[in-house]
Design goal:
25% helix, Transcription Regulator spoIIAA, 293 residues, alpha+beta, Nucleoside Triphosphate Pyrophosphohydrolase, 7-stranded mixed beta sheet
Length: 293
C-alpha cells in the first residue's frame, strides 16, 4: 500500500499524534498507568463498585489493596464487557499493569483489554538474518488473514507479546518455535540489540508498547515453518528490498516498521547522510507518556 511521499519518515506519519488531553488517566494505587477514552470511561462508570471517576481520571478503588484483589475485580468487569462485545480478540493471556518493565505489577489484566486502558505492554522481536556475502538478507513474514490485529500485513519472522510469568528468554524460545519452527538450540543464539517504543491511537484506545529486539543469524539452508497458524507465508528479502518497502509503502505493521528501521540503522543502511536520519532516531523510542505520581 502506497500513500503519500516516499521516505522513511512516512512510517511515523501513518498515525496522528496522540492528544492526551482527550483522554482520562487510568490510576491504580495512586500510580498513573494508562489512558482511557471518554467513551470507555463512561462504560467503566457503570461499575461504581470497582471504578470511580473524577474530572481527569478513572481510578480503581483503593479498597482493592492487593494484586489478587485488583485483578479479580477488573477481570469481572472485563468478562461483562466481553459479553457485550466491547473487548475483542480475547487471548486468555494476562499482562502486567505497571509503568516500567522492572516494576512489580499492580494488577494483571487480559491482554485484549490493554489498549482499552492505554496500558504499557511488552513484546519480543527477532530479526531473522541470513548472510549474503558481505551483506545480509532478512526473513519477512506475512500475517494470516484471520489475525485480529493487522491481518495480512507484513511482519517480522518472530514477534510476540510478553505475558506475565514468563521471562524474555523463555518467551523468545517459545515464539521462535511457534511462529517459525526455529529449534531452541538455534534460537538461544539470538542476541539482544536494544528496544523500540511506540504510542499510537487505535480503534479501541491507545497502543503503548515497549519491545525488546534480538538479532538471530540463521543457516542459509533454514526455511521458517509456522506452527500456530498466525503466518500465511515467509519471504527472504535483500536489505535493498526492505529499504525500498519502508521508503515507499506502509505494508509492514507499524511496530515492525520501527524494528526494521532500527535494523537498517544498525547495519549501516541508514546513516547521517540520509535526510531522515536525525528524525528517525528519536521516533524509534518515544517516551512512555505516564505522569509520575
Amino acid at each position: 500500500m502506497q500513500t503519500g511521499p516516499a521516505g522513511f519518515m512516512r512510517q511515523f506519519r501513518r498515525y496522528p499524534a496522540v492528544e492526551f488531553g482527550r483522554y482520562r488517566r487510568f490510576v491504580v494505587a495512586d500510580h498513573h498507568v494508562g489512558w482511557v477514552t471518554p467513551d470507555f470511561a463512561r462504560e467503566l462508570a457503570t461499575f461504581p463498585e470497582v471504578f470511580r471517576l473524577d474530572d481527569q481520571s478513572v481510578l480503581l478503588h483503593d479498597h482493592f489493596d492487593s494484586v489478587e484483589a485488583r485483578s479479580r475485580a477488573v477481570a469481572d468487569v472485563l468478562a461483562s464487557l466481553r459479553g457485550r462485545n466491547l473487548v475483542l480478540g480475547w487471548r486468555d493471556e494476562l499482562y502486567p499493569v505497571n509503568r516500567r518493565f522492572d516494576e512489580a505489577p499492580l494488577l494483571l489484566m487480559e491482554r485484549a483489554a490493554t489498549p482499552l486502558f492505554g496500558l504499557l505492554s511488552y513484546g519480543v522481536n527477532v530479526n531473522g538474518l541470513v548472510r549474503d556475502g558481505a551483506d545480509w538478507k532478512v526473513w519477512v513474514a506475512r500475517r494470516s488473514a484471520t489475525k485480529h490485529v493487522d491481518p495480512g500485513m507484513l511482519d517480522i519472522i518472530v514477534g510476540g507479546g510478553l505475558p506475565y510469568g514468563i521471562s524474555v528468554h523463555d518467551n523468545l524460545l517459545k515464539e521462535c518455535a511457534e511462529e517459525a519452527g526455529i529449534p531452541p538450540e538455534v534460537a538461544r543464539h539470538a542476541s539482544p540489540v536494544g528496544l523500540v517504543t511506540m504510542v499510537i491511537p487505535a480503534a479501541e484506545g491507545l497502543r503503548i508498547g515497549l519491545q525488546f529486539n534480538f538479532d538471530l543469524e540463521l543457516p542459509a539452508d533454514f526455511t521458517p515453518r509456522n506452527t500456530d497458524g498466525e503466518v500465511a507465508e515467509f519471504q527472504l528479502w535483500s536489505l535493498d528490498e526492505l529499504e525500498r518497502s519502508l521508503r515507499e509503502t506502509d505494508d509492514f505493521m507499524f511496530d515492525v516498521a520501527l524494528v526494521n528501521l532500527d535494523l537498517l540503522i544498525r547495519l549501516g543502511r541508514i546513516g547521517p547522510d540520509d535526510a531522515d536520519y536525525l528524525d528517525i532516531i528519536p521516533n524509534l523510542r518515544p517516551a512512555i507518556p505516564f505522569v509520575r505520581s
